[in-house]
Amino acid sequence: MSDDGNNTPEPGNGSHRKPLPEDSMPKGGVNAPVPVAAEVIPAVDPRLIVRQEGVKGYLGEFRRRISSGELGSLPVVLALVVIWAVFGSLNSSFLSAQNLSNLSQQIVGTGMIAIGVVFVLLLGEIDLSVGSVSGLCAAIFAVLNVTHGVNEWAALLAAIAGGALVGLVHGFFFAKIGVPAFVVTLAGNLAWNGLMLQVLGANGTVNLSGHDIVSRLYTTIYGQTIAAYGLAAFAVLFFLGAALIDTRRRREAGVPYRPVSDIALRTAVLAVLAFLAAYTLNQYKGLPLALLIFLIFIVVLDFVLRRTGYGRQIFALGGNIEGARRAGINISWIRISVFMICSTMAAVGGLFLAAQIQSASQTSGGGNLLMNAIAAAVIGGTSLFGGRGSTWSALLGALVIGSIQSGMNIQGLSNAIQFMITGAVLLAAVVIDSLSRRTQRAAGRA
Questions:
Q1: Under DSSP, is residue 360 helix (H, G, I), strand (E, B) or coil?
Q2: Looking at the UniProt record for this protein, which Gene Ontology cellular component terms does it annotate, in alphabetical order (predicted)?
Q3: What pLDDT, in 10s, does the model give residues 301-358?
Q4: CB–CB of 135/347 below 8 Å?
């Protein structure tokens, strides 16, 4: 090849090629270097850009989420703030340590049932039998322990097992036979209520001794100051440790992770809320054991939903059943197990409600319990359309409903007004959920 600088091509090396048009020549003439293909730039996770921009990035991301309908828990948190502000201004005793401490105990029974409802709602289904199931399981415990003298732990396990068995029956007819969940659980609502009356017998009411395991779980309060503050400190440290471990694993895997500043901010917010709650509880009697158990159920089952393959299958099935089927998910098993979880949590909630009134009677599981449990899950942020929700929804929703009832009782208002306001709040939650989904579809995020 010639090296005299005139770029004369050698024969056999493309010398007969047709010269390029002048307008296709690279700038600078024939002697200019030929441009090469641009280097492929790897895609950047938008969350990294948000975090790198600091506060400005998070504010922009917050505005984007709101405009696209991703509201999360914001509506229920704002509703809770408004409810507390209104009732606190009407009567100062509403925000007293005594009332808030009592409220934290009173929401446990309904909240436990609402946790189970969350699981069913994540599938886009409904369970109308949770009220009757809670009453039936409370009756099983009371009759076995009080009437027949069965060991309290054995009676407790029998009651919880009874709830799981009921869920198995519901799930079988729904998943295997194909009967709609609405019909199955509506029939169950009647059948289990009748079985509860049969279990209670002619007397109709069985009073708890007050010293049994169920009563102790509800009434025990740890009066030591260190109990509430210790729980708050443990929650903050646990959250911080889990966040740092998750960040380290993500960094090592080369996937997006939260920066230390983000973790520090979240930990600080949690610390303020946790220690404020601990301070409030210590101003009255201390930390209720029932509240502690409620929080443990929320955290453990939230971990199941968010951090396990089983939980991801529940979300997948609720979001797109056909996609879940093609992905190889055992749909029948997921459906049956979810209804078993729902009825088991109804049993646990029913036991706490029985301990609250110290008896199991013909009215157990009746009244507005079913509506309150479903409303708590929906108001707390769980979608009726499936695929979106959290066990924390049960806590937030139960707080909203419990706060409304407590505030109304302090003001001396009738049950009729309570029902109307609770219904209006439930309708508002469903409307917000529907509008949110519509906005997300319009933004291409649903």
A1: strand
A2: plasma membrane
A3: 999 999 999 999 999 998 888 888 998 999 999 999 999 999 999 999 999 999 999 9
A4: no
Let me know: does 179 contact 193? Beta carbons within 8 Å. no
Please report how the helices 309-319 and 289-307 are oriented relative to each other, as an axis angle in degrees rounded to 10: 70
- DSSP-assigned states of every residue in 298-352: HHHHHHHHHHSHHHHHHHHHHH-HHHHHHTT--HHHHHHHHHHHHHHHHHHHHHH
Q: Any residues with CB less than 8 A from the CB of 62 and at least 6 apart, and which?
A: none
Instruction: Count CB atoms within 10 A of the CB of residue 380.
Output: 29
The 8 Å CB, 24+ separation contacts for 309-313 are 310/334, 310/337
Ramachandran angles phi, psi of 207, nearest 5°: -85, 135
d(CA 191, CA 177) in angstroms, rounded, equals 19
Phi, psi of 361 (to 5 degrees): -140, 180
Tell me: pLDDT of 25 over 60. no
Domain boundaries, the chain: 80-223+285-431
Fold classification of 80-223+285-431 (topology level): ABC transporter involved in vitamin B12 uptake, BtuC (1.10.3470)
Q: What share of the chain is helix, strand, coil (3-state, %, to 5)?
A: 70, 0, 25
90 and 411 in contact (C-beta within 8 Å)?
Answer: yes
Q: What is the pLDDT of residues 399-427, one digit of tens each?
A: 999 999 999 999 888 888 888 888 888 88
Contacts 24+ apart (CB under 8 A), 146-154: 146/206, 146/207, 146/208, 146/209, 146/212, 147/206, 152/212, 152/213, 152/214, 153/213
Give the number of residues written for the chain.
446
* Spatial separation of the C-alpha atoms in residues 286 and 292, rounded to whole Å: 11
- Residue 144 tokens read as 């076995």
Query: In angstroms, rounded to a whole number, what is the distance separating the alpha carbons of residues 281 and 265?
Result: 25
What span, in angstroms and rounded, lies between the C-alpha atoms of 29 and 237? 67
Cα 233 to chain centroid distance, Å, stands at 23
pLDDT at 403: 93
Instruction: Return the structure tokens found at 228.
Output: 């509430």
Q: DSSP H helical segments within 363-414, as ranges?
A: 369-379, 392-411
